[in-house]
Structure formats: structure tokens, C-alpha cells
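Quick one before lunch.
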Amino acid sequence: MPRRPPVEPAESDLRVGSPATHAAGLPAVLSALRHGVREMGVRRTVKTLRMVNQDAGFDCMGCAWPDPAKRHHAEFCENGAKAVAEEATLLRATPDLFAQYSVAELAAQSDFWLGKRGRLTHPMYLAPGATHYAPVTWEDAYDLIASELQALDSPDEAAFYTSGRTSNEAAFVYQAFVRALGTNNLPDCSNMCHESSGVALEQSIGIGKGSVSLQDIEAADLLIVVGQNPGTNHPRMLSSLEAAKRRGATVVAVNPLREAGLARFDNPQKIRGMVGRGVQLADLHLQIRVNGDLALFSAVNRRLLDADALDHAFLREHCDGVDALRAHHARLDEAAVLAATGLPPEQIDELTRLLVASQRTVVCWAMGLTQHRNSVATIREVVNLLLLRGMIGKPGAGLCPVRGHSNVQGDRTMGIYEKPQEGFLERLEGALGYALPREHGLDVVESITAMRDGRVKVFIGMGGNFLSAAPDTAATAAALQSCRLTVHVATKPNRSHVTTGTAALLLPTLGRTERDVQAAGEQVVTVEDSMSVVHASRGRLEPASEQLRSEVAIVCGLAERTVGDRGNVRWSELAADYDRIRDLIAAAIDGFDDFNARRDAGFVLPHPPRDSRSFATPNGRAQLTVNPLQVLQVPAGHLLLQTLRSHDQYNTTIYGLNDRYRGIKAGRRVVLVNPDDLEALGLRDGDTVDVIGEPDADGTERRAERFRAVAYDTPRGCAAAYYPETNALVPLHSVALESNTPTSKSVVVRLERVGAERNGPKPRP
Ligand SMILES: Nc1nc2c(c(=O)[nH]1)N[C@H]1C(S)=C(S)[C@@H](COP(=O)(O)OP(=O)(O)OC[C@H]3O[C@@H](n4cnc5c(=O)[nH]c(N)nc54)[C@H](O)[C@@H]3O)O[C@H]1N2
Ligand SMILES: Nc1nc2c(c(=O)[nH]1)N[C@H]1C(S)=C(S)[C@@H](COP(=O)(O)OP(=O)(O)OC[C@H]3O[C@@H](n4cnc5c(=O)[nH]c(N)nc54)[C@H](O)[C@@H]3O)O[C@H]1N2
Ligand SMILES: [Mo]
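Model of the molybdenum atom complex:
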């Protein structure tokens, strides 16, 4: 029975209370059930949630945190349950919706409203000059795309985006198709996410992935969680931290905010978590200033070097660069460290003391480290720390970049990468049996510029919400609008679907919860989690509409029409039986031998530093690196804004309008500011303000309108507000050095009070 979409609260409904001091527990279970029942009713909620992350069920698309070997009866968390409810919803965005509203009218709605229309049911086409999307057959849709692609002067005039939910099988055929066409233009969400981690790790240890397993997390005696909010974004990680704590581990949080999830945790899987007082997680909280981490880790490393608290045997046998690092840190300016971190030196001493005492150290991090101008340098400095202490390639120790999307790491392994290495291409070429392009392609930021300048004319998005996820919303909108054709393979409507090129197509696809039946029968797909474990995922629900096609089927259908069978590839055979795709993957990619035989049990991909302390750098040794301290200067009267996630969203998908842990209810347009800064800026808690970013070179202003200023516990000079409402403020040219990741956590802004005369109706984002 179709349900009615929820009604969006008005601006005046926004309430601000005190932040929570506990995470999860009963409120988490109740919140999960409320979202589930609202989207899909009681019976379907119970049935669906029982299949998450079970051996015979589907992989939760909530995050990339691994599953424990011994699974709980209900291996889910509040936000995993919300992610599932969002996909398994009974609401439907049918052709009637697109007949009722023009594209312009849809574009005037909020992200929340668009997402809450429900699942897309039919392929839809927006013809050149048309005002409304209209239904189209799959065959006509493929033909339209094929003819646009074939009409290009060069395959490099198309860009093929991927969001990290795509399965390994779909990702593999997608990149095989794109490269058959002749381009490496494969930008992906990683470019905006953990690219800085990949670049830094590749340089330092020769592989761009983390080096720990779940067992390592639980066996560590010291866990440092930097720039990450696991209580909201990786709630199952709290269970692992809890397990480590019960064995006596110390947890340190490095974060400008006192996130509830790192304070006290009531495990919803355990009775004691529902009725007891829970476990205190972080023993030490370093309330660092935004972008201060390079200074912090430099200062810690200097102290370790000064105290000679080093693993000399490990350094001698495996590493280069310790003398250069020592000479560099000997000149470290402690005053600059204090200014950048805002931390009392005693706290840095305390962290150093914990490190020296630790036998098994793990450092975990996420977007708080990766989305700054100096991110790659910062992460290299984190690697320096673990190398100095010999904390790589032994149990209970290592590097843990906590990935975001549930298969973002797997997509990269499958070749979704604009800068493929020669060795990878050679082997892939052998397996596919046709020639592959060598010239590197465009990443996300480069794709935006290329579209805007007319160098890219066709945009295809395999999932995701390119417009809302990318920086500089106005620039990205202009980029999409200057394309001849924009295509989205998607489950639910979003802003990218209503900011289109001259023509546009919406291709509805199966989600991971749904049964995928092809010519050879029911199919399974595989994913790779944050710790390099590959495992199977089986959809169980009936598809949201009979018209839906799987991502694999869509790619193969399109490839058949555009490039045709070639080499060893018969697209229709791949689409009929995903085992045939896995045969190709086994031949093309390291670590996937006997893929079909091993997919059900799951297996761990090789990771030389973790497995044998070997490092695939040019000289075979791990590299300690010298990273000059760069401190971002914020002009007087300005703040350094970090853009982050609320507890009720999945990236650009807005589940609901509350952020329970931060005390925000029924609204999202808030900017969290230190009370002393508010006073210094002549503002009061509760004022309505516009947030204004740095102007463009041509003077165009970047402004996000009507936010409630909220006095909040964050260091002086720093502020926080939700993404994607604030993406308009991130300049397209403001990127991390070396990784080209937008600096979503270092946005220089000022606040302008909105006078009573401007208290008109709420503008749309
Ligand atoms: N429920 C839910 N789960 C998700 C997602 C979601 O949106 N919702 N998104 C998924 C994705 S794609 C990703 S990448 C991950 C994101 O997971 P997170 O990285 O946890 O996500 P953010 O909300 O961006 O939080 C960034 C954290 O870093 C801190 N921080 C900001 N700037 C700095 C800094 O300069 N230094 C330090 N030390 N800390 C800083 C912030 O205060 C915040 O706690 O989560 C994944 N899981
Ligand atoms: N300011 C700011 N910007 C950021 C960030 C930030 O912290 N601050 N974080 C960045 C990060 S870490 C990331 S990863 C990106 C996220 O960027 P994206 O991955 O592009 O964005 P999502 O919001 O995850 O994409 C949601 C859409 O995916 C589609 N979808 C969902 N499930 C499926 C599926 O199974 N198949 C297909 N084909 N489509 C599906 C739905 O239509 C939904 O609307 O945003 C980045 N942008
Ligand atoms: Mo991400």
C-alpha cells in the first residue's frame, strides 16, 4: 500500500537543545524502528532488517565498516537501518510525479522533499526543449545514449562518474565499457572522500589501503580516532571500540567537536547497553582546531624522536628517511603548533606518553583529515608516526582510513580510477582482449571544469548525486547544464536529476536489498569493505518496480549498443550470469583467483605491508616523509567552517531533519559557532545569518542563506554546518594538494546577520 511522504517542517520549527552525552542505546533502536515503519510498515521493517549483513542476506549499504565473523542476530545499527529503510521504502516516484511537476518545479524543492518521493519506477527522458520528463523504453534510452556517445569527436568528451555503492561486478563492467570506448574519464566519489588517504598511503607504504583487520582493532591497546564521527557515520565501529576497551585499550579522540558517539556508548546489541550506563569510549579528547592535525602529528613525532622512543629494528630493516625527518622536526616551531592546534602542550605530551607506552597502536581517520588543503601531508605525517613506532604489519597495530560508501574501496580495486597504473592496465588488457587507453582521465573537479568549458559534453552518473556532493554548487550546476546529455542510473530522485543538460535520462535501478534475476537465474554481487574483505551480497526483496534493471544489465545493454562485443567480452553473456564477470575479474585483478569458488565464504585481499612488512614503493622500503608545516591563515572577522553530516542523513540523502546527538531538531540550517566568537562578531545565539564564502576571481559572491547561529562547544575561530547546504561555499579551485579533493572541511567564511526586514519566506537551497 503506498504511503504518504512526510511533510517538511517550517523554518520556525527548528529547535536547539543540549548535545547528547551518550550514543546509541534505546533511543537508537527506537529511532531506527520509527524510520523503518514510516517508510515501509511494520512487517516489512522486521523482515528487511533481519536480512542485513547476514550470510544469506545483503551487505548493508550504510557504510564500509566490516562485519564481525560471529554475527549478531540483528547485525545492524540505527543508521544502517535508516539506509535500508530509505531504499526499501514503499513510496514510489512514478511517471505521474514527473507529469505533475516540471523539471523547474522539481528543482525548486528541497533535497529532503525530492528523496522522499520514493523509488524511481520507470526510465524517464527529458527531450531537448521539454519542460517535463516523460517515460521512455529501455531500448530507446540505450539508443539515445549510444548515438550521443558515437557522435562525440573524441571519447574524452564524455565523463563517467561512480558513487561508491556500485557492486564489484557492476564497477568492473562499467570501467571495461568506458575503456573500450577509449577514455579513462572515470571520476568517482573517492575524489571527494578518501583520495588524500590513497595518495599519501601509496607514497609512504606502496598501497593506498588501510592495513588493519577487525581483530587488530579489538586487539589494539591504543586507538586514536582522528577527524571521524563513528557514532553517526560508522556506528558498528563503536562495538569494536567497546570490545577493545573491555580488554583495557585506551581510546583518544582528536576532534574539534565533542561527538556523543565518542563519549559514552550504550551497545544496542547487548542488554547491558540498553539498561546499564554504557561504556566510556574516549579516555582523552584533544579538542583540536580545524585543520590543526598536521601540526599536532608533527609535534608528536618530534617528541618521539627527541625521546628516541623509536622501533630502531623496524626502521633499519624497512624504512627510509628517518634522519631527514629528525632534522626537519628539530626545527619545528612550537608556537606555530600551538596556534594551529589550539591545544595546551601538556595534552600533546599526554598523547605522546600514551604512544610510548603502547605496544599495539591503531590510528583511524575519516573526512576530518582528508578534506583540507594539507590533507595528503597530514596523512603522511600520521604514517610517519606509525612507522617510527614500528606499528605496521603486526597484530593489533596499523593504519585505518575508515571508508565511507559501502563499496567505494571495491570500486577502486575494480579499476574505477581516472589515473590507472600501467601494470594494472596491462593485466586488464590481457583479460579483456582489447586495447585500453593510457592517457589519464579527469577526476571530479577536473570534470566540472571540463564540462563548464565545453570540453566534456556527455555526463553519465552511476549512482550518486554529483551536483549536491560536488563543491561550488553554482559552478557544478552550470557544468551539468552545459552538457548535451546528462544520464543518471539511480534508485531515487535527487538534485542532479533536475539540473540537466540539453537532454537528460533517468535510469531506475535495483538496490542492494532487491532480488536480481537474470537469464542464468538469481544473481549475487560482491563488495569489498574498508579492511579489504571481499564478500557476497544477495538481495531478497521484490524489486520496487518491474521496470527496474540491475546496474550490470544497464551497463552491458549500453556497451552492446555503443562499442559492441570485442576481445573476450560478450556483454549479453556477462549480463546473463555474473559468474562470467567474476571469471574476468579473476583473470584481470590481483587477489581474485578462484573468485567464484571463494565468493560465498569471502576472502581478504593481499596487503603486502600488513601481510609481510613488504612495501611496493619504488625502492621497496617504507618512506618517512618531510611535510613542511602549512597553517591556514583565516582573515580577521572570518571563521574556518567545516561541513559535516548530521545524524539523519546519508551524504546528500536527507533521512530526517534531526541531529539527536548534537541537540538539533526539525531543521538543518544551523551554523555551530564558539560562543566567544559569536560575541566577538556582534552576534547572538539564535540570530539568523547568511554564511558567506570567499568570492570568485570575477567577484561573484558565494552565499548560503538563512542559517540559525548556534553557540556550540567548538574551538575559537572554527564553525560547523551541514553538507550539502553549504557546498555552495566551497570554491571549485580550493582543493587538497596532490589529491585534488575539495577542501570541504576548511572553508573560510564570514557571517552576516539577516535583519528583520529580510525575514521573508524560507528560500530553497
Ligand atoms: N549515517 C551515515 N553514515 C555514513 C555517511 C552518512 O552521510 N551518514 N557517509 C558515509 C561516507 S561517504 C563517509 S566518507 C563517511 C564519513 O564519516 P565522517 O568522516 O565521520 O563524516 P563527517 O560528518 O564528515 O565528520 C567529520 C568529523 O571530523 C571532524 N573534523 C572536522 N574537521 C576536522 C579537523 O580539521 N581535524 C579533526 N581532527 N577533525 C575534524 C568533525 O568534527 C567530524 O566529527 O561516513 C559514511 N557513513
Ligand atoms: N561539503 C561537503 N561535500 C562533500 C562531503 C563533505 O563532507 N562535505 N563529503 C564527500 C564525500 S565523503 C562523498 S563520498 C560524496 C558523496 O557523493 P555521492 O556518492 O555522489 O552522493 P550520495 O548522496 O551518496 O548519492 C545518493 C544518490 O545515490 C543514488 N543511489 C542510492 N543507492 C543506489 C544504488 O544502489 N545504485 C545506484 N545507481 N544509485 C543509488 C540515489 O539516487 C541517491 O539519491 O560527497 C562529498 N561531498
Ligand atoms: Mo565518502
